[in-house]
Specification:
The protein is globular. It is α+β, with helices and mostly antiparallel strands. Strand 4 and strand 5 form a beta hairpin. It has 4 helices and 8 strands; from the N terminus they run βαββααβββαββ. Pfam families: ASCH. Residues 5-80 form the ASCH domain. It comes from Paenibacillus melissococcoides.
Amino acid sequence: MKAITIIQPWATLIAIGAKHFETRSWATKHRGPLAIHAGKKVDREACEREPIKSTLAEYGYTADELPTGAVVAIAELTECWSVSRCLRGDIILERDGGNEMREDSIGKREEAFGYYDDGRYAWELTDVKQLPVPIPAKGQQGLWNWQPRGREA
């Protein structure tokens, strides 16, 4: 199964279903299951900013309680959107290789959970399942292969 390492608190925001797009500087052609791996780094400043702080608190998390160095969720990567901004500053998502536009999909809260700037990509994550217990794993840069043990998949 493909996996991606994401620093905290963003990995947990995905796992709890609050963050639906992972923004990256690069596109991917991968579609299908994707393991969400929480890296060892925690951005403590981000954990104190709203709406991140209150969203984490709603699920009982603080910066000190975020899992690290472990797979925390399994999601379906369903689409990779090109990101641009119109003159008003609204985010526009365009399907890679197509003309289909999607404008109103990013609310202010979702925007606060990612980096939506011209030339970036928004990986759409659906059917996210948070693992009941994070599974320790060593992360890597880029997409990497993770071999789930038994019933975790």
